[in-house]
Amino acid sequence: MLERLKKSLLEAPIFKRGSYNYFIHPITDGVPEVRPELIREVTANRGALPTWKWTNCGPLRPWEFL
User: Which of 6, 36, 38, 43 is most buried, with most CB under 10 Å away?
Assistant: First the structure.
């Protein structure tokens, strides 16, 4: 389940902006272009996705939530 999303998060570039880790991903940024199969997978499994608490989240590792 959510294999496309996991793979895309693992491959997403992560940039350090000061003390903040910033990643660029089609689902969060719309860049690069969102592939239709990724949208279908995410929307079909949206109930299985975590609710992230963004305050004091520490180093960004979104793949740990999947």
Answer: 38
Domain around 32: 3-46
pLDDT tens digits for range 3-48 = 998 899 889 998 888 888 888 899 888 888 889 999 999 888 887 7
The answer to whether 1 and 45 are in contact (CB under 8 A) is yes
Omega of the bond leading into 50 within 30 degrees of 0 (cis): no
- To the nearest 10 degrees (0 to 180), the angle between helices 3-11 and 36-44 is 120
Is residue 5 within 8 Å of residue 41, measured between CB atoms? Answer: yes
Q: Is residue 62 classed exposed, middle or buried when 0-12, 13-18 and 19+ CB atoms within 10 A define those classes? A: buried
In order of 1, 25, 52, the CA distances from 22 in angstroms are 25, 10, 15
